[in-house]
Design a protein that fits this description.
single chain; 37% strand; 2 helices; 129 residues; alpha+beta
Length: 129
């Protein structure tokens, strides 16, 4: 009898703890999190990519090494290029982070010769309320 009472009490307490941890639909936690836009290097040439302030463009380098690209934004106040890197346990794609409303050209080059520079435009729009 004590075992059954203990199991029922433990289940009830666990259920109450889980309910206490869940957020409500009016909870602002996570509301400002935006999913990145992901595009491959072969899709970006000459494109216009729209991002919201704070959003990132994740660039899939496809068959080339993630750390083989360098890049630069014509207007670093509007968007920032982040190089790809290889960590001891993971690979991180290069990307572009939208910083403020505006438009800028991004030029990426690859250290593996013979690949033309990749040039595209990032248009940054304000967050909607």
């Amino acid at each position: 009898m004590k075992t059954k009472l203990w199991a029922t009490t433990a289940t009830l307490l666990l259920g109450m703890a889980l309910v206490g941890c869940s957020g409500s639909s009016g909870d602002p936690v996570g509301r400002d999190v935006m999913a990145p836009v992901t595009m491959g290097v072969n899709e970006l040439q000459g494109e216009r990519v729209e991002l919201v302030v704070g959003q990132a463009l994740n660039i899939n380098t496809e068959s080339l090494a993630v750390d083989s690209y360098t890049g630069e934004a014509a207007d670093a106040a509007v968007a920032e290029f982040t190089p790809g890197r290889i960590d001891s346990s993971a690979e991180f794609n290069p990307g572009v982070k939208a910083l403020k409303t505006g438009e800028t050209t991004i030029v990426m080059t690859n250290e593996q010769g013979g690949i033309q520079p990749l040039e595209f435009t990032v248009v940054v729009v304000p967050k909607s309320s």
